[in-house]
Amino acid sequence: MSLPLIALFIAAFAFGTTEFVIAGVLPQVAQGLGVSVPTSGYLVSGYACGIAIGGPLLALATKSLPRKTLLLGLAIAFTIGQAACALAPDFTSMLLLRIAVAVAHGAYFGVAMVVAVGLVREDQRGMAVAVILSGLTVSNVIGVPAGTAIGNIWGWRATFWVMCALGVAATFAMAALLPRTTGYQAKHAGLAREVRVLARQQVWTSLILMLMLMIGQFGLFTYITPTLLEITGLDEDLVPWVLLLNGVGATLGVFLGGKLSDWKLMPSLITMLGLQTVTLAVIYAVSPYPLPMTVAIVIWGGLNFAIGTPIQTRILAWTADASNLTSSLIPSGFNVGIALAASLGAAMLNSGFGYRSLPLLGAFAMLVAVLVALASYFWEARSNATPPLTAAAE
């Protein structure tokens, strides 16, 4: 892994940790800010909305800035935001600060992935995307448990001070390791051109695949703990270990997806979507049995992130000539998908379906994804279309 990619990974790890660690310290935050735990849950949904809405807007507003300058600015905003969260006097200020950091988060991942693929050869782009995505998976495996432990020992404000220190480290790493000219960037692409690239079938079909992937993942993952407790019958003390194994599988899956993206992107993607359909059906079948369920959960976690890498690599390849808006839509699309998946899962549960039915929702979504991916692949082959040429780098 090159040093510039390591710098981008550190910042991705920092953003990923601060997004997810709030769940681990939510009761302490609620008590400290004088609100109920359900009310404090808006700190999670507010962050997701900040990514989904604010990220693309910020990316468009800053498209004329050099990429390194923008990435450093976003890292500094992250660092200041963590310090401000650690000092937040009340819930309203905490919520607004979280949303502000989330806007920087959404813009960062869009820009960082564009920069990452511009730092490597064309046949290494999938692995470059995987490095950025691995920041999110490693944050779940290491960052979130560590941040939660720090909060349990020294209080939730200490968690945010540590995140602030991590932001400082990420800022210095990017300042020292990123070259002044970074990646490819459609510097002169206007808003109309940015919007027009969304009409390319490879782009909008990939965004559909992203939504289906999130339904396949978070329709179940949002309710994974009660599923493991009530359907599988696991002891409460064992659930974190199953989730840890899922995170390990996800981390390995990111790099598997990167390798496959650089080898045969669409055939690999279609195959993995099919395997994930089967895996979710297997989860439904084995959910009452602890050992098979655990194995299936690990495979499911690996495939979730293995699939995400080629989807994002494909979007970046087909928007190389106007990447500002579309690249920022990638983290937005993921967060919209997460919200949609959680809502669909809640609707099923409220309609009387049990937790065991949630994998079937995911299997249906993945079957739709297989059909969309096949149609897109054959459409592309029939038209003999090729990805646009990369614009000059900054």
UniProtKB/TrEMBL annotation:
Keywords: Cell membrane, Membrane, Transmembrane, Transmembrane helix. Its main location: membrane. It is a multi-pass membrane protein. Residues 4-384 form the Major facilitator superfamily (MFS) profile domain. The keyword ATP-binding does not apply. The chain crosses the membrane at residues 42-62, 69-89, 95-120, 127-146, 158-178, 203-226, 238-257, 269-287, 293-317, 329-348, 360-379. It is found in: Cell membrane. This is MFS transporter. It comes from Mesorhizobium opportunistum. The lineage of its organism: Bacteria, Pseudomonadati, Pseudomonadota, Alphaproteobacteria, Hyphomicrobiales.
